[in-house]
Amino acid sequence: MSFVLQFPKTTKNKKMENQIGSPVESHKTDVLPSSASAYLDPHYWDDRFSQEEHYEWFKDYTHFRHLILDYINPTSSVLEVGCGNSQLCEGLHGDGITQLTCTDLSPVAVKKMKQRLISKGYQDIRVLEADMLDLPFANECFDVVIEKGTMDVLFVDSGDPWNPRVETVDKVMAMLRQIHRVLKPNGIFISITFGQPHFRRPFFGKSEFTWSMEWRTFGDGFHYFFYVLKKGHRKSEGDESTERIKMPSISPYHDELDSEDYIFRTNIDDV
Ligand SMILES: C[S@@+](CC[C@H](N)C(=O)[O-])C[C@H]1O[C@@H](n2cnc3c(N)ncnc32)[C@H](O)[C@@H]1O
Q: By its UniProt entry, which SUPFAM superfamilies does this protein fall under (predicted)?
């Protein structure tokens, strides 16, 4: 078993299919960082978003829509943390989920997201700058919080995934405490990630959280994880309340990853 930080193959000039909008041309070699730790640098994201109009980490909405609609309905107030230039909110809106708040640490991402949504007629989606480690919202104000690939950023310099650095643990815990705080008493946190259950459970299952944890997978050759944490549903003190809904089959074939998602493959066992 080994843990290797791997960088993506160049995808310059590759046509990337934007499943919600129209096909877009990727200029990914222009936006790739020199090292994975750059993902922790807010300036990296500002520079990137000033050049890049759209990129979906870990697949777009169409790939996990069937899972998400089990947990969200049109009356749900939804917070997305680390929205980047994803079109997730547009997909949700198209399914009648209109009480949406998109946030990102990057002012460039926020400005461009606002412009894009207004130009496409989504006047009712709220977009604001916010650090997920210190969310500017009152306690218990969202039914659902979603993150897609955002928590993974905190793990890029974690070191040994079985024993992450203290700095990584502190940041991940700060993020989770904020999300737990802003969720309503029976609210749901959805985390879409590469992180396997044995690496996420030590965080999600901390006894200070009242949520239960279950997970599903999606994807064709390579599987992504779709975690559902239901606040107030933990069975008992000290009980991690984890439930595997579907056994994942992890593919070792890197060629099946057609994108920069590859870089976040730090927490995956080589099988
Ligand atoms: C890997 S991208 C994922 C973007 C988007 N969720 C998607 O699925 O395509 C990570 C995003 O997290 C944002 N981010 C990084 N640190 C953050 C923080 N502390 N608070 C909020 N957003 C953050 C970055 O600006 C970037 O937009």
A: S-adenosyl-L-methionine-dependent methyltransferases
pTM: 0.84
The protein residue whose alpha carbon is closest to atom 26 in ligand 1 is 84
Strand partners of residue 119:
none
Asked whether residue 229 is domain-assigned, the answer is yes
Cβ of 86 below 6 Å from ligand 1: yes
At position 15, the amino acid (one-letter code) is K
Mean pLDDT, rounded, for 183-205? 96
The reply to whether 126 falls in a domain is yes
- Note whether residue 1 is domain-resident: no
Ligand 1: residue of 32, 43, 104, 131 to mutate (most ligand atoms within 8 A of CB) is 104
Distance in Å, CA 48 to ligand 1 centroid: 12
Q: Which of 153, 170, 266 should be mutated for ligand 1, with most atoms under 8 A from CB?
A: 153
Q: Evaluate: CB of 56 within 6 angstroms of ligand 1.
A: yes
> Domain containing 123 — which CATH number?
3.40.50.150
Mean of pLDDT over the chain: 83
pLDDT confidence of residue 263: 57
Residue 78, classed as helix, strand or coil, is strand
Total domains in the fold of the chain: 1
- What is the domain range of residue 53? 15-267
Output the pLDDT for position 115: 97
| Whether residue 252 has pLDDT greater than 60 | no
Of 158, 182, 162, nearest in space to 170 by CA: 158
* Residue 247 Cα to ligand 1 middle (Å): 28
SS (H, E, C) 28-72: HHHCCCCCHHHHHCHHHHHHHHHHCCCCCCCCCHHHHHHHHCCCC
